[in-house]
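Is this the right way to post structure tokens for a design question? Let me know if I should format differently. Anyway, here goes:
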């Protein structure tokens, strides 16, 4: 249905299932994979599972599988990313779509341009660290051949990607030699991405698909156009190299002129790049753009991104930063007692206590080292005492950096510190002061405790029920149990390989999610008609039929005859056909435009039609 093969599905599942437990338990999107048994992994990766639930998109019939929620993780400035949290099967489907596109997409990007994204489909790497390191190394290779660099950044990159442009690009560059993605499959891919992103291109935690499509596909033409502009229009540059990592683009420049002379060229390049981006619905973040000598590139090029765990440092960090962590916490406590701390001040304290010219690592990396690697420091009585004071002074300080600070508290293994954290969260909930930052803190703690704290889960359900539902089905329990729904599996047995029925149901589901009542009803009525034909064939309603008679179920009479043993079926079918014939999306009469029919009337009719199906299945056969 979505155009990917079983081999792609198997490879995708293997890539995520082979992640270490530490990685799986570090992120909310990946945590559900840590709950799976080996047998579960074998089942999900099997061809039988693929054929039953994935190939024809039968999984869309399970409401729980289609569940998604807002995720709660923050940018470096403390604000929240506009991100989605997907049910694990839905997440794997998205990644498999990206993998299949990567198999067939033929980039037009100039071969001298290098582009990296978070993860790697060619080598099936789910984590971004190695590919970012390769990007970092490549930039440093070209530094020796350059005098200056231009750094650019795109504002709110992922949410502003235009899905129509993206799908058109996939169509143009993946179906050159032969058809790999049909118009129906491209439609399904677009609608699924829109559904997962709540109407936009989705930002998903640790999603290779999102990063690949945004970087390699969406920016393909953009990179070529800015390359051609520099090559053809900028005379004062003798040579240049473009290297991209997702939305960050670096242009390494060699020129006989000084930086003052290059200012005009920089402005031309920036303005042209901004103009090109505008055509693609994107905008340049001018505050993060610069022209500088290559000697200053390390201040712009951060070797460590996001929240990758800091592993394998072989430098003598302890001797360089003796007492730094304690002094950092004491300074943080002093600030909390005397004034309101903000993200800028918090980051300045990290720079103050964890920066050194004697190591190549950033202050954030050294700070990560103390949080993630130095359990002995965190578990000292002196540090635990300061942490408890911080919590009791103002728990909101954790909202500055929920993940790291919550992990710091949990890794103290101090009952006193952990109880102080939980007590403050419970107090905030009782007083009605709970906000998104508290949710983020609670999730960070629950991940560390492997979702075993029942009371905190109850508080989370009270204050953020959508996220708590995800936690129940995917983190507290093995998510595979959601596929045991007997009624839905009966539906699948009846529909079998009728992919058009799944397509109609999927379109009904996404239109329902968008609150497009006319489209919602149009797709459901068509699904109902087709399902009824499948139902009639399954129960041998007409023994002469060798296959489902889809053309036989379109009139009121044929439906009345089929559902005649169900009370009030005739009135339900009459109303359904009346609404279908008046729906401007189904019939040229477009009578609903003039009528006072409400969305609730249409939804009620859908419920009644669904009840006919269930009632028929409940009849004694």
């Amino acid at each position: 249905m979505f155009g990917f093969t079983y081999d792609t599905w198997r490879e995708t599942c293997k890539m995520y299932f082979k992640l270490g437990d530490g990685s799986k338990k570090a992120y909310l999107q990946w945590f559900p994979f840590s709950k799976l048994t080996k047998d579960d992994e074998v089942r999900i990766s099997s061809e039988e599972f693929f054929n039953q639930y994935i190939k024809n998109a039968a999984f869309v019939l399970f409401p729980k599988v289609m569940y998604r929620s807002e995720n709660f993780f923050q940018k470096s400035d403390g604000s929240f990313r506009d991100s989605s949290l997907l049910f694990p099967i839905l997440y794997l489907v998205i990644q498999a779509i990206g993998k299949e596109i990567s198999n067939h997409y033929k980039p037009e990007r100039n071969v001298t341009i290098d582009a990296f994204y978070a993860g790697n489909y060619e080598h099936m790497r789910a984590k971004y660290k190695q590919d970012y390191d390769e990007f970092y190394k490549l930039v440093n290779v070209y530094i020796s051949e350059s005098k200056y660099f231009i750094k650019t950044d795109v504002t709110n990159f992922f949410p502003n990607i235009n899905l129509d442009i993206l799908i058109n690009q996939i169509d143009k560059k993946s179906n050159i030699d032969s058809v790999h993605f049909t118009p129906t499959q491209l439609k399904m891919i677009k609608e699924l991405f829109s559904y997962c992103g709540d109407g936009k291109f989705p930002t998903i935690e640790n999603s290779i698909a999102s990063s690949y499509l945004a970087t390699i596909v969406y920016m393909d033409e953009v990179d070529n156009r800015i390359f051609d502009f520099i090559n053809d229009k900028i005379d004062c540059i003798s040579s240049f190299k473009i290297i991209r990592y997702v939305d960050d683009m670096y242009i390494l420049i060699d020129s006989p002129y000084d930086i003052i002379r290059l200012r005009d060229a920089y402005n031309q390049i920036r303005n042209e790049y901004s103009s090109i981006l505008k055509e693609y619905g994107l905008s340049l973040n001018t505050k993060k753009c610069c022209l500088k000598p290559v000697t200053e590139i390390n201040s712009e090029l951060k070797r460590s991104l996001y929240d990758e765990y800091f592993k394998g440092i072989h430098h003598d960090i302890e001797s360089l930063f003796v007492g730094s962590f304690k002094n950092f916490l004491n300074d943080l406590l002093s600030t909390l007692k005397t004034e309101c701390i903000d993200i800028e001040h918090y980051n300045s304290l990290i720079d103050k206590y964890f920066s050194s010219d004697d190591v190549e690592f950033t202050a954030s990396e050294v700070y990560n080292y103390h949080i993630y690697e130095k359990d002995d420091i965190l578990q000292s009585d002196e540090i635990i005492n300061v942490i408890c004071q911080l919590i009791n002074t103002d728990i909101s300080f954790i909202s500055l950096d929920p993940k790291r600070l919550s992990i710091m508290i949990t890794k103290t293994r101090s009952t006193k510190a952990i109880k102080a954290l939980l007590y403050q969260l419970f107090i905030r909930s009782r007083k009605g002061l709970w906000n998104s930052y508290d949710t983020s803190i609670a999730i960070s703690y629950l991940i560390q405790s492997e979702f075993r704290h029942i009371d905190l889960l109850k508080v989370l359900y009270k204050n953020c029920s959508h996220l708590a539902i995800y936690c129940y089905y995917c983190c507290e329990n093995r998510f595979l149990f959601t596929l045991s729904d007997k009624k839905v599996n009966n539906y699948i047995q009846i529909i079998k390989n009728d992919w058009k029925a799944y397509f109609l149901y999927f379109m009904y589901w996404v239109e329902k999610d968008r609150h497009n009542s006319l489209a919602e009803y149009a797709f459901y009525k068509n699904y109902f008609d087709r399902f009824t034909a499948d139902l009639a064939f399954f129960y041998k309603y007409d023994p002469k039929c060798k296959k489902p008679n889809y053309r036989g179920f379109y009139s009121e009479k044929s439906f009345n005859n089929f559902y005649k043993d169900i009370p009030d079926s005739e009135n339900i079918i009459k109303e359904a056909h009346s609404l279908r014939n008046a729906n401007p999306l189904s019939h040229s009469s477009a009578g609903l435009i003039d009528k006072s029919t409400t969305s609730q009337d249409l939804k009620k009719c859908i419920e009644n039609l669904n009840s006919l199906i269930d009632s028929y299945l409940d009849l004694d056969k």
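Format looks fine. Someone answered above. Worth noting: Residues 517-538 form the longest helix (22 residues). The first strand starts at residue 68 and ends at 70.
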